[in-house]
Design brief:
single chain; 203 residues; two-stranded antiparallel ribbon
């Protein structure tokens, strides 16, 4: 906000607009995070029940694409959704949305002048396979090992880990709640691919 105020004093309209857009995006992300953290906290209760409904995954992906449109533009990233038909899934929409929003947010955060590709298909068990691939920085072997260890232990370690990535914590714990599988491949300088599978399709 100080940067925007200073730019306004110098009549730097371009900087004012860019700064205002950044503030708007940050506010939107904080609002989404608060909702997701509240959902995560409730889901830790042993009496929590999933709110499973049937909905088109195509519409959810378009919703997320619009949500990230300005954030992607600020990083000069593009989104490519690869889906060749309508898919109806039966699961907790809010939880799946939180998983995908955090995956896409991480992809955008660690990618500059790149592409985030979202691919959707169905396996032989009539379950969704959804992959988010970026062309960003990628992870070190140590980072990837730590995240994969956390996946292997979920949901037995529901507490927030010291120095852990809270976004990944939500992704992992929500996936466990939905009985979905996570697979992550990454390498330094070669981007990251996160695949979510095991979500039931109805068609």
């Amino acid at each position: 906000s100080r940067h925007v105020h200073k730019a306004a004093q110098h009549n730097d309209i371009e900087s004012v607009l860019a700064g205002s857009e950044e503030i708007k995006n940050t506010t939107t992300k904080i609002y989404s995070f608060v909702k997701e953290f509240s959902l995560w906290n409730m889901s830790l209760n042993e009496n929590y029940r999933l709110n499973k409904t049937s909905f088109p995954i195509n519409a959810l992906l378009e919703e997320l694409k619009q949500f990230f449109e300005e954030m992607m533009r600020l990083k000069n990233n593009t989104t490519d959704i690869k889906i060749d038909r309508e898919f109806t899934v039966h699961t907790d929409r809010d939880m799946l949305k939180a998983i995908l929003r955090n995956i896409i947010d991480n992809a955008n955060k660690y990618t500059q002048n790149g592409t985030i590709t979202i691919s959707v298909e169905k396996d032989e068990r009539n379950c969704l396979i959804l992959s988010v691939q970026d062309t960003g920085n990628g992870m070190s072997e140590q980072q990837l090992e730590k995240i994969n260890y956390r996946i292997s232990q979920s949901p037995s370690i529901p507490a927030i880990e010291k120095d852990g990535r809270l976004g990944f914590q939500l992704i992992i714990d929500f996936a466990a709640r939905l009985e979905a599988r996570l697979n992550i491949t990454s390498a330094n300088g070669q981007g990251t691919t996160i695949t979510v599978s095991g979500i039931t399709c109805e068609d």
